[in-house]
């Protein structure tokens, strides 16, 4: 029998009635970020770095690194046009370094979580200043342009997909499952 990874009464996520489009995006994004954090909670470096099935490099630690890179790409590079800094967790010789470099080392774990949290803080600061009316503003991306709201929905979708991966990875580690 599997164990729930959190009791319903201890769930820190919110499921309210957000008012407005931006508030709705914020609630979903915040909840998915918390889901990933909860899935990683209480695990050591070896468990976080444990790969799913060969030849895949998928691991919880890799997901955290990937999500830090994704937050940086969409919030810093695309939405704010800050393309001068190098991409996080990318190497020219290994485009999947976010996952490939997720080795079970406490220093790598510490760096990954600190980087992810820092990227979330920068994204939240930008979101706090975003006016609801600016959700339709077009930003250049991928050789075209996208509305800011479309980028935010994509980020939420990215978290949702990876929360499913995290659920399966965590269950393989210690039998804990999601609600």
UniProtKB/TrEMBL annotation:
InterPro entries: DinB/YfiT-like, MST-like
Gene3D superfamilies hit by this protein: dinb family like domain
Any matching Pfam family: MST
Name the UniProt record assigns to this protein: Uncharacterized protein DUF664
